[in-house]
UniProtKB/TrEMBL annotation:
Keyword Calcium recorded: no
EC number(s) on file: 2.7.8.7
GO molecular function: holo-[acyl-carrier-protein] synthase activity; magnesium ion binding
Top EC category: transferase
Protein family membership: Belongs to the P-Pant transferase superfamily. AcpS family.
Protein name, as recorded: L-aminoadipate-semialdehyde dehydrogenase-phosphopantetheinyl transferase
């Protein structure tokens, strides 16, 4: 079994967006380009497009399929899946997330996988951290809130909040159950001896344990790491953790890996994108792709 895929793309480092946009939009399925064209803000449209490219490039790398052979659909709850998951006989499962400056991809063969990335900085527009936590109180159990509130600094409290959020989102996205499942039914127990901080020497495999309705889920493992100092990421795997590190890829490299049909390029896509306003607001917004 091949090692899992762990890729990330930085939106701020996409310097050739003007030249790449129409090409990139021509490589994805028409229904996905329509979804992207509905976004109000530049950042949301850009990160969503990158997520679609990550899914297609990851599939091409693992299966050897051409872009025209790759077809994704979505479950009732919006999770993208390969219409032909047996491409190459590998049973590939892929998941993407985007938030802040990054879009990320996690992929596994023969195992369900989910990923979530979060910007750990304080959301704009909140009067106080206590107020923010109060609005989110139903998302975590009492034990989890005790761990979140235990540090003395606001920065560390926020990081723990986002750590738990990433863990829950990664599992929900791997299973495809959706937020309606009830986040308090999921409880994560952290190992205080397991390192969780930004740094290249920090292992991504964690000893974090998940319980659902009070029953420990021993078949699930979790990778936890940082893309940079303010973006944390969690990967849920229905199987054994590989301790895989995320590798940076660029949009031009993704485009190179997918064959472009110049007859399918629509110049109007960029005209719409450049008219969108910028958002520049930090908020809880994890996307299935």
């Amino acid at each position: 079994m091949a090692a899992g895929l762990r890729w990330y793309v930085s939106l701020s480092r996409w310097k050739t967006i003007t030249e790449d946009w129409n090409v990139a939009m021509s490589l994805i399925q028409p229904e996905e380009s329509e979804r992207i064209n509905q976004f109000v803000f530049k950042e949301d449209a850009s990160l969503s497009l990158i997520g679609r490219l990550l899914l297609r490039a990851g599939t091409a790398k693992r299966t050897g399929a051409t872009n025209n052979e790759i077809n994704f659909d979505r479950t009732e709850r919006g999770k993208p899946y390969l219409v032909e998951p047996s491409l190459g006989g590998c049973g590939l499962d892929l998941n993407v997330s985007h938030q802040g400056d990054y879009a990320v991809l996690a992929g596994e063969e023969g195992m369900r996988v989910g990923v979530d990335v979060m910007d750990c900085t304080r959301p704009r527009g909140i009067a106080s951290l206590d107020q923010f936590f109060t609005t989110m109180r139903r998302q975590f159990t009492e034990r989890e809130w005790h761990q979140i509130r235990s540090p003395s600094s606001e920065e560390d409290k926020l990081k723990l909040f986002y750590r738990f959020w990433c863990l829950k989102e990664s599992y929900i996205k791997a299973t495809g159950i959706g937020l309606s499942h009830g986040l308090q039914r999921l409880e994560f127990t952290l190992d205080p001896s397991s390192p969780w901080k930004y740094g290249a020497d920090t292992p991504s495999c964690s000893s974090t344990v998940l319980s659902v309705d009070g029953i420990e889920q021993t078949q699930w493992s979790f990778e936890e790491s940082f893309i940079d100092r303010k973006h944390c990421v969690a990967v849920a795997i229905e199987g054994t953790c590989h301790s895989g590190s995320f590798i940076e890829v660029t949009v031009p490299k993704l485009l190179e890996s997918l064959a472009v049909d110049i007859n399918m390029i629509d110049p109007n896509h960029w005209e719409l994108q450049k008219k969108r306003p910028s958002k520049n607001v930090s908020c809880l917004n994890s996307d299935n792709g």
